[in-house]
Amino acid sequence: MRIGEAEGVFGNCRAEARLNLDGTGTASVSSGSGFLDHMLTALAKTGWLDLTARSDVGFCRIEALGAAIGRAYDTCLGDRSGIRRYGSSSVPMDEALADVALDFSGRPYLVMSGDFRSRSIGDFDVQLLQPFLEAFCLAARLTLHIRFYGENDHHKMEAVFKALGFALRQAAGREGSGVPSTKGVI
Q: Is 72 a residue whose pLDDT tops 90?
């Protein structure tokens, strides 16, 4: 079983996360945003991982949570031996579509293309999606590309998180042995 626990700190905010990459898709999340909790539950379900996460209150809690979840992924994957390394997924949700491609390369980077019509979805400020994903990428040491479009902001955001879950499951999946790199290290 690949289990990782980690803490994320950003500014004065703290968060903690526990992951089981070989889980069943259950989540218990308390981010301070009901909508983000819903998105992280969707990620856990499509990623077939068990996720427990919570964060302090405060403006920087989202980044701290992204860092905690990313660091838990990094802990689970260790030196990346035996994983596929790459993952991609396209997820439609009614009129919306999200494409996600990622690489557990050891080189954190985020490229995101798409926009939202509203400033918030429920209690979640859509401008916090990018800082959350940047903190996640940095801590998980992964390169992540996301493109999305559609009419309904909720559908776009949910398609992004579900596609991310599928791509993470694929990339973290077991395949062979050794580190999947021509250099022998990631």
A: yes
How far is residue 62 from each of residues 15, 56, 83, 155, 159, measured CA to CA in Å? 9, 9, 28, 20, 19
Angle (CA) 61 64 70, round 5°: 140
Rounded to 5°, angle at Cα 157 from 9 and 121: 85
Indicate if the pLDDT at residue 158 is higher than 90: yes
The token pair that represents 29 in the structure block: 């999340």
Cα–Cα distance, 107 to 125 (Å, whole number): 28
Query: Is residue 58 scored above 80 in pLDDT?
Result: no
Angle between helices 129-140 and 61-77 (to 10 degrees): 30
Total residue count of the chain as it appears in this document = 186
Q: How far apart are CA 48 and CA 184, in angstroms?
A: 28
- CA neighbor of 140 nearest in space, from 56, 26, 29, 43: 43
Please report, for the chain, the start and end positions of each structural domain, with discontinuous segments joined by +. Answer: 3-172
Domain 3-172: CATH architecture, name and number where available:
2-Layer Sandwich (3.30)
Query: Residue 56's pLDDT band (boundaries 50, 70, 90)?
Result: confident
Q: Helices 61-77 and 34-47: crossing angle, nearest 10°?
A: 20
C-alpha angle with apex 93: 15 to 132, nearest 5 degrees? Answer: 20
Distance (Å, whole) CA 92 – CA 97: 4
